[in-house]
TrEMBL record:
Cofactor(s), by name: FAD
Protein name: Glucose dehydrogenase [FAD, quinone]
Family matches, as InterPro entries: FAD/NAD-bd_sf (IPR036188), GMC_OxRdtase (IPR012132), GMC_OxRdtase_N (IPR000172), GMC_OxRtase_C (IPR007867)
Gene giving rise to this polypeptide: CYP9E2_11
Superkingdom classification of source: Eukaryota
Record has Signal as a keyword: yes
GO terms for MF: flavin adenine dinucleotide binding; oxidoreductase activity, acting on CH-OH group of donors
Active site: 532, 576
Pfam (any one): GMC_oxred_C
Amino acid sequence: ERRNLGLLEGLVKFVQEGTRHFQEEPQDAATVLPEYDFIIVGAGSAGSVVANRLSRNPDWNVLLIEAGRPENYVMDIPIMATFFQFSDANWKYKMEPSSTVCLGMENRQCTCPRGKVVGGSSVVNFMIYTRGNKRDYNNWEKLGNSGWGYKDVLPYFLEIEEMTIPELTKDTRFHSTRGEVTISYAPFHTPLADAFVEGGRELGHRIVDYNGETQTGFSLLQTTKRNGTRWSASRAFLHPMRDRNNFHLKKRSQVTKILIDPSTKTAYGVEFVQNKKKYVVRAKKEVILSAGAVNSPQLLMLSGVGPKQHLTALNIPVIEDLSVGYNLMDHPGSLGLTFTVNQSVGLILNEMLNDGSSLVEYLNYHKGPFSVPAGCEGIAFIDTKNPSDVDGDPDLEILFFGASLLSEKSLYKTLGIREDIYKTVYEPVEDTHSWSGVPLTLKPKSRGRIMLKSANPFHKPLIYYDLFEDPQDLEMQLLGIKKIIDLSNTKAFQKYGSKVHNYPIPDCKHLEFGSDEYWRCVIRHLAVGIWHLSGTCKMGPISDQSSVVDERLRVYGINRLRVIDASIMPVVPAAHTNVPSMMLGAKGADMVIQDWKTGYLKN
Ligand SMILES: Cc1cc2nc3c(=O)[nH]c(=O)nc-3n(C[C@H](O)[C@H](O)[C@H](O)COP(=O)(O)OP(=O)(O)OC[C@H]3O[C@@H](n4cnc5c(N)ncnc54)[C@H](O)[C@@H]3O)c2cc1C
C-alpha cells in the first residue's frame, strides 16, 4: 500500500515536472519575420549553443529552425535512452547495405539514429560526457587549423561546463561550475560498475578523471545530467532564453534549401517547409548550418555546394565544387561480447518494472537504477601502444554496461540485429543477469561518405560506411575484446562468477568459439557505429582539397555561410561527440560575434 502511495505521489510529481518542462521549452514562433540577422538550421547540440550566444546581443535577431518535434520529459529518464529511436524523435537513418560489415543486422544495415527533436541528438544520446584528448585538438591545429589547439578549445569546454561532482570541482584548471551543461555521476550504480573500475585497477590501469589533465584510465561515467535527469542541449541552452524577444524558434520545420545567389556566391536565406507550407526567410548577416553530420552536408549539396560530378548527375546546378559528404567518421564498435553473472547485480528492465520500487524511487527522487543512462555505467580509455603511460593517447575505449542484449528484449530491434540471431543466441537465456563491454576504435582509419539519393530534400541521404574497411580498425576491436575478457577474469568480476556468454553467432559457428577468427566474424556481424558521425564538412586549410570550411568555419567559396556542428571535425576526437559539438557551438558563435564586431564581414 505504501508503495502504491509512493507511485501515485511520484506520478503526480512527474506530471508536474513534465508540465514545467513543456512550458520552459521556447514556444514555436507564431509568426516568422521576412528577415533575421542570423538564421541557424538545426536546434541540436551545436545549434542550441550558437542560438544562445548570438541572441545575447539584443540588437541581433535570430531564427533557429528545427525539423523535429518538441522534447518530451519522458525522453529525459536516463534508463529510457534507447527507447525513442522508434519514435518520431529519430531521423531513422540506416547505413547502405554492405557485404563486409553489419552482416548480422536486418538487411545488412547498421542503424544510424539521429535526433529529430528540439535538442537534436543530445535528446536521444546516452548522456556520456567526454571531451577527448588534448592531442586530438592539437592535431586539428597541426592540420592547418590555427586557433583550434587544446589551449584554444579548453576555455570553451570550461565556459559551458557546470561540474557538480564534488571532488572534480576542485580541479579548476580543468573544471568549471559556471556553465550551462550540468555534469554528474549517476546517483546509482550497480556492483558490477564497481567491479569494472576495480578490475581495471587489477589490470594495472589508473582510476582517472578522464576529462581532467590526462585521459587514460578507468572511471565511472561522468554524464550530462542534472538531478538524475537528462540535461540536453535544449534544457541547457534554449530553455533559459525562452523570453528573449529577439529570438524565434520554429519547430517541425524542415529546411529544404539554403538560398545562395549564384552570381555573387552569397547565402541570403533559407527555404523551409512546415505543415506542407513553404516559407522563404532572408538572412541579413549569415546562414549557419548546424544540422549535424548527415543533414548539413545534405543541405549543402541540395543547395548546389558539393562534389560537382555527384550534383551534376542529379541535375543540381553547381555553385561551388567542394568535397562535401566525404570524410565520414564514427567510432566503430561491436556488440558481440556478453558476460553472464551468478548474482542479481545487473540491470534488467523487466525486473525493475515488476518490482516497482525502482520506478517509485525514480519518480519521487530521480534516484536508483532508472537514473542510469541506457544501462551504461563505466568507461575506460586505453593507449594500447603505451599502456603504462599515465598521460597516454588512447586508441581504444571500453564502454561498460551493467546490462546487455539479454537484459531488455527491445534492444536487439533498436540496434537492428536480425531476429534469428536474437532467438538463437540471446533469447534462450534472456533476463539472466549480465554485463557487456563495447570496444570502440578511437582513431578510426576507415572513412565513409554521405551522398544524396536525389534532389528531393525529403529523400533520406545515403550513408556509405564500411566501418572496418581499414583492417587496423577491426584489429583494434579484437584487441578490445581480449582486454574485456581479461577484465572478466579479474577477481573483481569473478566475485560474481562472470563468464563469457558462449552461444555462438549462427553465421560464425563454423569457427572455433573464442578464436581470433571467430571474434573477427562476430565483429563484422554485430558491428555498431556508436553514432559519433562527424567530418562530412571538414575544416581545413585551402590547400587541402578535401576541406569544406576554413578555420573560421566559413564554407569555402560562399559568402555568409558557415557550418557549426560535428561535421566540421577534421578528425573525430577520442570522445563521445555531444559536448565536443557544444564546444564547437560556443567557439563557432564567438567567431561569428568577433567577425561582425570587427566589421570583418561588411553588412
Ligand atoms: C543514439 C545516440 C547515442 C549517442 N550517445 C552519446 C553519448 O552518450 N555521449 C556523447 O557525447 N555523444 C553521444 N552521441 C553523439 C552526439 O549526441 C552527437 O554527436 C551530437 O549530438 C551531434 O551534435 P550536432 O549539433 O552535430 O547534431 P545534432 O545534435 O544531431 O543536431 C542536428 C539538428 O538539426 C536538425 N536538422 C537536421 N536537418 C534539418 C533540416 N533540414 N531542417 C531543420 N532542422 C534540421 C536535427 O533534427 C537536429 O535537431 C550519441 C548519438 C546518438 C544518435
